[in-house]
Design brief:
Blueprint: E1 2-7, E2 11-18, E3 21-29, H1 36-49, E4 59-64, H2 70-80, E5 86-87, H3 108-121, E6 125-130, E7 133-139, E8 145-152, H4 154-164, H5 184-210, E9 216-220, H6 228-231, E10 237-238, H7 242-254
């Protein structure tokens, strides 16, 4: 079985695959000062709760955008799973040409998403990852990583507004009753919620115009499910586990 780990700035997602089948997955808060033992015990406990034997894990792949954790996670893999982890980093075999000016600048999760999207549709695609930042990644019809766009995530936008505007309260980010808010709470929710959806739709429209021919749009990431109802008219598909699937594909290509 294969253990996959997607380590983001806000959340870390773990999944276990038996061949192409995802048996279990978990979403945790990324804690930068967590120790090797804490990560190891946590991972083993999660497997135990899912009735998956630690000894059955014979492969481990990690995509991390938090470099200070890489050494900790490598030590965890070797200590608690007796395995050398495969990191998604320069030199790994992805099967996807990177057309970025400096390929090493592209986050590991963005490459993984692109690989999974192209493997799924074998045509041009745009992946939108709703995480700490909202990333847009364009894949050509020939399976090349073209580049993309990076925007502040919804939560980052909300926190920035609350911190810089002394008289504005912190509110739950949710769809308000109407776009024209009739109180401060609804006005804030309207601006954040509908403004964010407008950002996503606007960037997708402009990216599609720059690509040769149609492109399938796929949403993923932690916020994709909570916004699913409103993202359905904008995106062709939503799969919160797309990154995990990409990690499985890349691991198979490097075995």
């Amino acid at each position: 079985m294969l253990l996959v780990m997607d380590v983001g700035n806000t959340n870390t997602v773990l999944g276990v695959y038996d061949g192409p089948r995802l048996l279990a997955h978990w979403r945790l808060t990324t804690v930068r000062n967590r120790t090797v033992d804490e990560y190891g015990i946590l991972a083993r406990n999660l497997l135990s709760l899912a009735s998956i034997a630690v000894e059955s894990i014979d492969g481990l792949i990690i995509a991390s955008v938090v470099p200070p954790l890489n050494g900790v996670l490598e030590a965890m893999a070797r200590t608690y799973f007796r395995l050398p982890p495969l990191f998604v980093e320069p030199g790994i075999k992805t099967g996807m040409p990177i057309l970025y000016e400096n390929p090493q600048e592209v986050g590991a999760d963005r490459i993984v998403n692109g690989v999974a999207a192209y493997e799924r549709c074998h045509s041009a695609a745009i992946v939108v990852d709703f995480g700490t930042a909202t990333t847009f990644d364009a894949i050509s019809a020939r399976g090349e990583y073209l580049g993309g766009a990076i925007a502040p995530g919804l939560q980052i936008s909300a926190e920035a507004l609350f911190e810089r505007a002394a008289r504005l309260p912190r509110v739950d980010i949710r769809r308000p009753p109407r776009v024209i808010g009739r109180n401060t709470t609804h006005s804030l929710q309207a601006g954040l919620f509908h403004g964010y959806l407008g950002l996503v739709q606007g960037i997708l429209t402009r990216m599609k115009a720059e690509m040769d021919g149609p492109a399938r749009t796929i949403g993923t990431g932690g916020l994709s499910l909570s916004l699913e109802e409103d993202l359905r008219p904008i995106l062709d598909e939503i799969d919160p586990n797309l990154t995990l699937e990409g990690l499985r594909i890349i691991y198979d290509r490097n075995r």
